[in-house]
Amino acid sequence: MPVLRVALDLPLHRLFEYVSAEATTNDVGLRVRVPFGRGEKIGLIAEVAETSEWPLEQLKTAGEILRDLPPLPADFFALCEFAATYYQAAPGEVLLQALPAGLKRLVVPERRKGRAGRSPSAVSPPPLTEQQAQAIAAVPGEGFSANLLFGVTGSGKTEVYLRLIERALASGRQALVLVPEINLTPQLETRVSARFPSEKVVSLHSELAEAARERNWRAAFAGEASIVLGTRLAVFTPLPRLGLIVVDEEHDPSFKQQDGMRYSARDVAVFRAHQLGIPIVLGSATPSLETWANAQNKRYRQLLLTERANPEATLPAVHVLDTRKMVLQEGVSEPLAAAIAARLERGEQSLVFLNRRGYAPVLACPACGWVSRCRRCAANMVLHLADQRLRCHHCGFEHRVPKACPTCGNQDIHPFGRGTQRLEAWVQQRFPEARVLRVDRDSVKSRKQWETVLERIHAGEADILVGTQMLAKGHDFPKLTLVGVLGADSALFAADWRAPERLFAQLMQVAGRAGRAELKGEVLIQTQYPDNPLFSAVRAHDYPGFATQQLKEREQAGFPPYTFQAVLRAEAPEMTMAIDFLKAAAALPVTREHDAVLVFDPVPMKMARLANLERGQLVVESPSRPALQAFLPCWREAIEQLKVPSKLRWHIEVDPLEF
Ligand code: ADP
Ligand code: ZN
Ligand code: ZN
Fold it and tell me: Are the beta carbons of 404 and 411 closer than 8 angstroms?
C-alpha cells in the first residue's frame, strides 16, 4: 500500500507518514485530510513512497486526498525547502503558511462568487527618459540576474517596472511585484491595471478578506492572473509562468517577518529568481546596505536613475535647523512655523513629520517621579488624549488616564515629550484658519480610510499634514512643497547600529514628498546635531556617500554585511530562566566544533520585558555565510535535545534586523 509522507503545519522538522490505498505518485503536491491526535488536519503530500521504515500496520490511514486544485509544483516545494533550511524553520510550517487559510480548512464554507473586476481603459505610457530606457535595456529578458534599480524619489522607477512587466507578459510570462505595505498596493494596483487593462491583475496581502485572498491566490496559481502584486507572504505564491520579480522599496523593514517564521521576503525573492533562472529587480532610492554592497561588488547589476522623470520637478532643497539656538514651541522652531505660514499664504501644503504617534510618549508625576510604565513590558504607556487612554504600543495593554498620580495622589500629573496628537493640537492652535490633517496609525486604521485620506490630500482639502512615516512612502502630493522634520535626533545615538540607515532612508523618503510637481520643494530638518555627517548626506541627496561611510564603519566594527548573524532568543516568566537556557545552548559541544562561528554571551534583549515575558538573546556570528549555515542546523538539533522548562519558548532568527 502506498505511503504518504505528509507535511503538517507543526514546528517539527519532519514529515508524517500515513498509508493510503487511493494514492499514486501523481498526488505529490495535493492536500490531504489526515488523522492527527484526536482530530484531523489538512496536510500537504510531500512524497508518495512504496515503503516506510515503520511497519505499515503501525501507520494510520490517511483520509480524503483533495483534488480541487492541481498539485503544487516541485519548484514550490523547493522554494519552501530553501526557506525552511536557511531560516531554520520547520518545512511543514513554511509550506502550509504559504497557502491561503481557506485551503487549510477542514470544513469549507459556502462561497459567493467574486465580483468581476472592472476593466479600466488603457493609459498610454509616457516616452521614456534616457536613463529609464538604459535601465530597461540593461535587464536581460532571460536567465537569472539580480538588478538594483537605484533611483531617487520621483525618478520614474515604477515606469521601469511597468515596461519590464510588459516585456515579461509579451513573452507569455507572469510577473510578481512585491511591495512593503498594504498601504501602497491600492495606488500601484490602479496604476498597473490602468496600464494593462486586458490582463488580470490580482493583489495578495493580509487585509484581503479570506475568500478574496483565496480567489486571487487560485488565479495566480492557475496562471490566469498575469500580474501579482503583494506584500511579503506573496513571495511564496506558486506561479506556473513566472518570468519577472520586482521588489519595490527593497530596503523596507516590513519585508522582514518578525514573528512565526522569520524570513526576509526580499532575500527569498532573490533565491526564487535564481531558482527559476529569471531576472529580479530590486528598486529603492535608499537601498539596504546589504543590497548596496552586493551592487558595489558586482554581484548585482546596478541601474541608475539620478534625475526626476519630470524635468520640472527638481529635488527639494534640504536645510538643517540648529535648534540649540532656537526657542521651540511644542517642539516647533520659529523658522519652521514661518515656512508653514508662507505655504498657507500661497495655498500650498506642508507636512510636519514626527515618527511618534499618540499625544505624549509618557505621563509623569513631578511630585514623586511616577511614570506611566506598562505593567507587562519594559516600556512606557503612551498617552492618547483623544480617547483618554494610556496605551502600550508594544503589547497593546491599555487603561483609562488616571485623574491623579496612582502613587502619591498628586492631581497635577503631566504629559512629557510629544507625539503627533499633541503636535496636531498645537499646529491647529497656531494656525487656526488652516485645515490640519493628522495621518498616523491611530487616525487611519484601514485601507478604506487610507484611500479617503489620500483623496482628501490630493483634492487639496488639507493645508497642513501632521504625520508619521505612514505618509513618507510612495505618494505623489502635487501641492506639497514643505516638509518639516521633528524628532530625528533620537535615532542618531541609538544603541541599534542600523538606526542611522533607517533614519537616512526615512529622511530621504519624506523629503521625496516635497516638490514632486512643478512647485519647488523645501525640507527643514530640526536637530541639535547639525554637523552630523548623516545630515550633510541628506542635504546633498548623497546616498552613495552615506552608504560608503556607513559600510566603512560596519566593516571596521565587524557588523553585517561583513559578517553574518543569527540570534537565539528565549522568552520566559523569569529572566534567569531565559538566560540559563541560553547559557546551556552556548555551552553545547557543537558550539566548539565550528571554528568559524563566534558565539557571544547571553544578554537580556533591549526590550527585556514584553507582554509579561522576560526576553534574552544570544548572538552567533561568522565571517562566512556557509559556515554559519553549516553550524545552525547542528546547533538547533542539539538545542532541541536540551531539557527546557515548559514555560520557556525559544526560536532562532537568521539575519536579524533587530536585537
Ligand atoms: P519613483 O517610483 O521613482 O518615485 P514614479 O515612478 O512614481 O517615481 O514617477 C514619478 C512621476 O514621474 C510620476 O508622476 C510618473 O508618472 C512620472 N514619470 C515617470 N516616468 C516618466 C517619463 N518617462 N516621462 C514623464 N513622466 C514620467
Ligand atoms: Zn506622584
Ligand atoms: Zn506593554
Answer: yes
Q: How far apart are the first and last CA of the chain?
A: 50
Q: Model pTM?
A: 0.93
- Ligand 3 midpoint to CA 372 (Å): 11
Cβ of 125 closer than 6 Å to ligand 1, yes or no, is no
Ligand 1 pocket, residue 476 CB under 6 Å: yes
Same domain membership, residue 327 and residue 277: no
Q: Which of 503, 520, 555 is the last residue of a domain?
A: 555
Q: Which of 555, 580, 614 is the endpoint of a domain? A: 555
SS3 395: coil
151 lines ligand 1 (CB under 6 A): yes
Q: Is the CB of 129 under 6 A from ligand 1?
A: yes
Confidence (pLDDT) at 35: 97
CA separation for the pair 493, 541 (Å, rounded):
22
Cα separation, 242 vs 223, whole angstroms: 9
Q: Is the peptide bond before 561 cis (omega within 30 degrees of 0)?
A: yes
The Cα 200–Cα 196 span in angstroms is 8
Residue 128 CA: nearest ligand 1 atom is 23
Which residue lies with its CA nearest to atom 16 of ligand 1?
156
Question: Ligand 2 centroid vs 402 CA: distance in angstroms?
Answer: 11
- Closest by alpha carbon to 378, among 358, 397, 351? 397
Q: How far is CA 259 from the centre of its chain?
A: 12
Q: For residue 606, give its domain range.
A: 564-654
Q: Which of 134, 158, 308, 513 to mutate to test the pocket of ligand 1 (most atoms within 8 A of CB)?
A: 158
Domain count, the chain: 4
Tens digit of each residue's pLDDT (9 = 90 or more) over 356-415: 999 999 999 999 999 999 999 999 999 999 889 999 999 999 999 999 999 999 999 999
Closest Cα to atom 9, ligand 1: which residue? 156
> Same domain, yes or no, for 246 and 265?
yes
Tell me the per-residue pLDDT of 537-581, one tens digit each, with 9 for 90 and over: 999 999 999 999 999 999 999 999 999 999 999 999 999 999 999
Say whether both 589 and 613 belong to one domain: yes
